[in-house]
Amino acid sequence: MSQVLLMRNVTLAYGERIVLQGVNLSLSKGELVYITGRTGSGKTSLLRAIYGDLRPKSGEIWVGEQRVDTLSPAQIPYLRRKLGIVFQDFQLLPYRTVYENVALTLEVTEWRDKRKIRERVMETLLRVGLSARKDAYPHELSGGEQQRTCIARAIVGAPILLLADEPTGNLDPEVGSQILALFHQIARWGTAVLLATHNPQHIQDMPAPVYVCTNGRLHLSPHLTS
């Protein structure tokens, strides 16, 4: 399997406060891993470093063949074309339909052919189970449907790596489990998935390798893995 993410001896800090140090993590195509830990343990900081929003104090971060920690601000948008990002808060544009929210990801990059945009968006909506809701607005959607729209928006550009920060945090347990199953399906399609969660039930229900943020370190858990 080809390597999608490599973090080598990474230290993350806010000013003089060390959040995580000595982080070593790799992720290959089609692999899903969980990042867990208490609130404030560094899960979100880890994801921010990967998508170029937090520069490491030391160490190397690679996404594919691109080194992230040395990028200039002008280069960050090009990095993010390789990434899909899903947050706990849906962050959908309220006056755009499901279709328009997803299509925007392509329209702001190099996609210009409207027919190809439509084909890609409709294929993606079908994959996440939303093709029948393409003309609905965010306020007309359930929480699960809103998160599926966010996931479609994140994967429509065919990223090599999908980052998800507490993506089921605002959903009830049953819907959260359905969304989690979708992330596992996306990994089977070939996209690497790094999913931060504090919900141990999800990890038990759908096992995968688990990394734990604790005491400023990232450890592979020997107990909560597939």
Which tags fit this structure?
226 residues; alpha/beta; Rossmann fold; 2 domains; six-stranded mixed β-sheet; globular
3D architecture notes:
There is one protein chain. This protein has 226 residues and is α/β, with parallel strands linked by helices. The chain has two domains: 1-82 and 160-226, Rossmann fold (3-Layer(aba) Sandwich), CATH 3.40.50.300; 90-158, no CATH class. The chain has helices at residues 43-50, 76-80, 98-107, 114-127, 143-155, 173-188, 200-205, and strands at residues 3-14, 17-28, 32-37, 58-63, 66-67, 83-86, 161-165, 192-196, 210-214, 217-220. The strands form two sheets. A six-stranded mixed beta sheet has the order 6-7-8-3-9-10, sandwiched between helices. A four-stranded antiparallel beta sheet has the order 2-1-4-5, covered by helices on one side. Strand 1 (3-14) and strand 2 (17-28) form a beta hairpin.
Q: What's the number of helices?
A: 7
Mean of all residue-level pLDDT scores: 92
Report the CATH topology name of the largest domain.
Rossmann fold
How many extended strands? 10
Query: Which percent band covers the strand fraction?
Result: 25-35%
Unreliable stretches covering 5 or more consecutive residues: none
Give the helix proportion (percent range).
25-40%
- The radius of gyration over CA amounts to 17 Å
Please write out the topology.
Blueprint: E1 3-14, E2 17-28, E3 32-37, H1 43-50, E4 58-63, E5 66-67, H2 76-80, E6 83-86, H3 98-107, H4 114-127, H5 143-155, E7 161-165, H6 173-188, E8 192-196, H7 200-205, E9 210-214, E10 217-220
Parallel strand pairs: 3-8, 3-9, 6-7, 7-8
Antiparallel strand pairs: 1-2, 1-4, 4-5, 9-10
Helix pairs in contact: 3-4, 3-5, 4-5, 5-6
